[in-house]
Amino acid sequence: MKIRNKLIVLQIFTLLIFILTIISYQHIQLREQRLYINSKIKSDELIIDNVLKYNEDRFLGAAKTNSCWNEIVDFALKPDTAWAKPAIEEIVSTFDLNYALVVDSSKKNIYDIYNKCDEIDNHISITPEMITILFGKSAFCHFFIETKTGYEEIFGSTIVRVDDSQHKGKAFGYLLIGKLWNSQFIKEIENVTGFKINVSGYLQSDTTKIIKDSKNNILVQKIIDDWQNKPLAKIAFKIKNKLIEEFYFSKYLSFFIAFFSILTVLLFFVAVRKWISKPLSHITNSLNTENISFLDNLIVKKNEFGEIAKLIKQFYLQKHNLENEIKERLNVEEQLKKANENLEHKVNERTNDLVLINSSLQEEIAERENAEAIIKKQMADLEAKNVEMESFTYTVSHDLKSPLITINGFAGVILEKIKNAEYEDLDIDLNRIVNATGKMQELLKDLLELSRIGRMSSVFAQINMNILVNEVVELLQGIIKAKNINIIVEENLPDVTADKQRIKEVVQNLIENAVKFMNNKENAFIKIGFKKINNENAFFVQDNGVGIDEKYHQKIFGLFDKLNQYSEGTGIGLALVKRIIELHNGKVWVESELNKGSTFYFTINKQKLM
């Protein structure tokens, strides 16, 4: 199993156990708490409703009883203060009221009385409009009015004859009585219910019937309305909550969860050290010392670290082979120089002899010129190869060093994160190391292919270029169809004498390069054909893609030179094309303008090959 998969399995397993434990605990706690709260609220709310209903029935009954009375009807028809004062005061005193008002049938206030006026605002205003609305649909009314000292609860009834106990007949007037919710009255209700009561103004947010305060006390809210049936205030009954005491055992469960969490973290540390820290340490030591013996234990492992170790070992072996090849070429150069010196010495000796032997002078001179020409050509070829080898070695060293720096850098970062117990982005850093090693493997593969060109013996034969081009087009049908590109191959392409496999690679690289930089262009096409240039057959691959700025026409044939660093590939394709064409004594060049497409030409010098 991959290291990453092991870590994921371990984390998921730990997380599931932890979540299941918390969920179970919370489920048990919430279930018992919910049962208790629901039971408690139902019983307490029933008590509250019964007490409020009792008060409402008592005071509304007082209004109904004292308004169904012939004497008060006569008073409403013909006000008599001498009768009203003792009679109304008796009603107020009997029912412990704070306020009473008699209104005649024309809705005019004819008598009012205030009891305990030092505790209430004695300017309660009952207007004819209010009387009309309050008794418009019913013979009775019940509402609240806010005063300076509290909320006055008002009960009203129509004044009727004693024989109209249902208050269905004509109303001769209206009787309103009031009870002030002052501290004394609230205290009486608290004594009856056993709950703390708070009366306060209504807010828009007071829509929840049952809430909890900051001390886990339960508040049952009752909304009271004004004479227009609009919310005026709320009465909150505080019920003490003892759930914390009943769920004391939850502490023991918390201790268990803490212990399990610590144990899980310890196991995680051990796993990280075994599966990540040690392999990274071996890789770091190998990179710092260039000693592949540190990788012996990692190579046999079938995980990411095993693959990284194999790639690093392969890199060092390739590096060693390149160094040996460079040494061999330097030795050959030295031997050639010595051979040249010896040859020049012999030529001098022969020249002295030719002064005496006139008959063989022309033959010796021709031999010397031929030998010098060969030597000059060999020296030029050797100098060119040395320059190429120097450029090749520098490029290889630079481009292969970048992935190694990435691997070494992120390996150090991962070790630092492990020391600091920072594991969040560990898989991301490991993926970056794997991506760097993949890039290095791709570079090594392309370099190996490039190094083989010219060293492997080529098989030259006559090639039908139409057949060869069609084979390449068929091979690339997948990427061609994916971008909806029209391929045009001219008929009667001239035959050539060359290495078929290498020329096939040239055509394939040029077509792939054209497809890559087409950028989903509409009406895209790629045309393969030939034309006569300077009496030579020049094959071309033409496209209508993004084009290339003239200043990059030579640079693109260099090793690893990519105009777009984020494009696919390693940047070695056109360098391979140039190397193969040069081995065929031909030339390769590009004609292009930015945003106007590109045309790549190449020639094969048949006469030089022959």
Shape: elongated
Strand order of the largest sheet: 2-1-5-4-3
Query: What is the number of independent domains?
Result: 3
- Beta content comes to 15-25%
Describe this structure in words.
The chain has 610 residues and is α+β, with helices and mostly antiparallel strands. The chain has 3 domains: 59-244, LuxQ periplasmic domain, N-terminal subdomain (Beta-Lactamase); 290-452; 460-609, Heat Shock Protein 90 (2-Layer Sandwich). It has 16 helices and 16 strands. The protein has helices at 3-67, 70-77, 81-94, 128-134, 183-193, 243-246, 250-289, 296-299, 304-356, 361-419, 426-452, 465-475, 477-482, 500-516, 573-583, 606-609; strands at residues 99-104, 109-114, 140-147, 150-159, 173-181, 196-201, 210-212, 218-225, 231-239, 460-463, 486-489, 496-499, 525-533, 536-543, 588-592, 598-603. A hairpin with a 5-residue loop joins β7 (210-212) and β8 (218-225). α7 packs parallel to α9, α9 packs antiparallel against α10 and α9 (304-356) runs parallel beside α11.
Briefly characterize the structure:
The chain has 610 residues and is of the alpha+beta class.
Notable features of this structure?
single chain; 610 residues; alpha+beta; Beta-Lactamase; Heat Shock Protein 90; 5-stranded mixed β-sheet; elongated
